[in-house]
Design brief:
elongated; mainly alpha
């Protein structure tokens, strides 16, 4: 049973305000990432595919962060918040490791293609 002193009852108004902040940040990020994708597509060069991949990874990571922020708003107590944070960090570490492998592979391929 959870100790009532350790519960985190966040007032509905605060949750609503935080959710709106997350939505606004997400909307701003979406506009930024759309502009970045268009910019990369307009100037083709040997690194275009790597840039597209990096933007895709950035988009995935930010969406995960926004989702995580929403989950944290729903945490009932500090233990749940810590659990959510731990799970998020583990997932992001795994994602970053895989993304770095893919980018490294892409850079290696681009360098190999460039030397031919």
């Amino acid at each position: 049973m959870t100790d009532p002193k350790l519960t985190m009852e966040v007032p509905a108004q605060i949750k609503e305000f935080a959710e709106k902040g997350i939505q606004q940040a997400e909307k701003g990020f979406d506009a930024f990432i759309d502009a970045a994708h268009k910019s990369v597509a307009m100037v083709p060069n040997p690194t275009t595919e790597i840039s597209k991949k990096a933007l895709s990874f950035t988009e995935q990571n930010m969406k995960a962060a926004f989702d995580h922020a929403r989950k944290l708003l729903q945490a009932k107590d500090p233990q749940e918040a810590i659990k959510l944070q731990t799970e998020f960090l583990k997932a992001q570490y795994a994602a970053a490791t895989e993304q770095l492998k893919q980018l490294g592979s892409s850079v290696g391929s681009a360098a190999k293609d460039d030397s031919v």
